[in-house]
From TrEMBL:
Protein name, per record: RNA polymerase subunit sigma-24
Record keyword Metal-binding present: no
Domain RNA polymerase sigma factor 70 region 4 type span(s) in chain numbering: 110-162
InterPro entries: RNA_pol_sigma-70-like, RNA_pol_sigma-70_dom, RNA_pol_sigma70_r2, RNA_pol_sigma70_r4_t2, RNA_pol_sigma_r2, RNA_pol_sigma_r3/r4-like, WH-like_DNA-bd_sf
Superkingdom assignment: Bacteria
A GO BP annotation: DNA-templated transcription initiation
Coiled coil: none
Length: 170
């Protein structure tokens, strides 16, 4: 049974490394141990049928595939069952903007504020009432004592002016 001895030798020599590898994927040491054991059983069964050219590489591949499969199953179950809080937290995407995105947004805001300061008083007020306070054109017209059409024209003019102040990004 030379194939079994070779598989056993590879398993024994790299067991700790394999467990660490699986644990990095699963973040669960006990499950990583199980994955490595399952992988060794599979490679031993394959080697009984014939020699493998690169059994160490193949063993690592089996461990990786098994660990990824278990990880996917855990995530699916967490979504379906509600899962435990740690599993659910992994599924929530990080929506924190990058430093670059934040810098670009601040720069654009600075440009818009500069554009807003350049507008005539009535146009600036109409745009602020619409964009910041969320008033409808009818409400802006009543507050400023103008027609709805003029309120609309002032808001459009203000938005267009401010948009021109924001540099175009590739």
């Amino acid at each position: 049974m030379p194939g079994k001895n070779k598989a056993l030798g590879i398993y024994a020599a790299h067991r700790g490394e394999l467990v660490n590898y699986a644990n990095r994927i699963l973040d669960d040491h006990a499950r990583a141990e199980d994955v490595v054991q399952d992988a060794w059983e599979r490679i031993a069964a394959i080697e009984r049928k014939g020699a493998l050219a690169e059994p160490r590489r193949y063993l690592f591949r089996i461990v990786r595939n098994l660990a990824i499969d278990i990880s996917r199953v855990r995530k699916r179950e967490a979504r379906r069952d509600g899962g435990d809080i740690a599993d659910i937290a992994e599924l929530i995407p990080d929506e924190t903007p990058s430093a670059e995105t934040e810098m670009i947004a601040r720069d654009e805001l600075r440009c818009v504020l500069t554009g807003l300061e350049e507008l005539p008083e009535r146009t600036r007020l109409a745009l602020t009432l619409h964009a910041v306070e969320g008033l409808k054109l009818r409400e802006i017209a009543e507050r400023l004592g103008i027609s709805i059409g003029l309120a609309h024209a002032l808001v459009v003019e203000g938005k267009t002016h401010c948009a021109k102040r924001v540099p175009r990004r590739p």
